[in-house]
Amino acid sequence: MEFQEVVQRRRMVRNYEDRALPPGVLDRMLANAARAPSAGFSQGWDFLVLEGKQETERFWEATFAGRSRAGFAWPGLFLAPAIVVALSHEDAYLDRYAEEDKGWSDRDQSRWPVPYWHVDAGFAALLMLLTAVDAGLGASFFGIFPDQLTPFREAFAVPADRTPVGAITVGHPAPDRPSRSLRRGRRPVTDIVHRGRW
What we know:
Layout lengths: L2 H7 L15 H9 L11 E7 L1 H11 L18 E7 L1 H7 L19 H19 L3 E5 L3 H11 L6 E9 L17 H4 L6
Helix pairs in contact: 1-5, 2-5, 3-6
């Protein structure tokens, strides 16, 4: 598939067929994620990969506990055969930029205009979403909310120094109804691009 077509076809898929991924696709998604840009080549990301009903169900039990799946707007989301959680590692960046070639001798967070450890994990997640589209699959990115963090960490023994930036479901897309948010429409490029000055 041509790159422009991949970009045009990318959307958040919230309904999946109940079938396994083709062999090798998940590995390709992860290999592409590992090629994402990172500040100082810090590569402060990790990916928790959950494949198959037993592993994905543990994720849903940890993050959807106490909520009714029957009343959930997209029950087909729970059929995704794989989930990848992208996690950021702040210390990797603070340590890297305290090295001699970066010119800082401390790990002061105030030097960072934005938390690049989260930005870079987001870059990696986007590469996974695009790879899924290129493979003819669907994918969706969503957050793990504060009340879900402790159960998620406990279910998968996630270290305290790793922050889940978001989870990605991936699978064979089934027909679904679009999110109501899409009614807002896409902002025209002419409204968001400022050339030369604001």
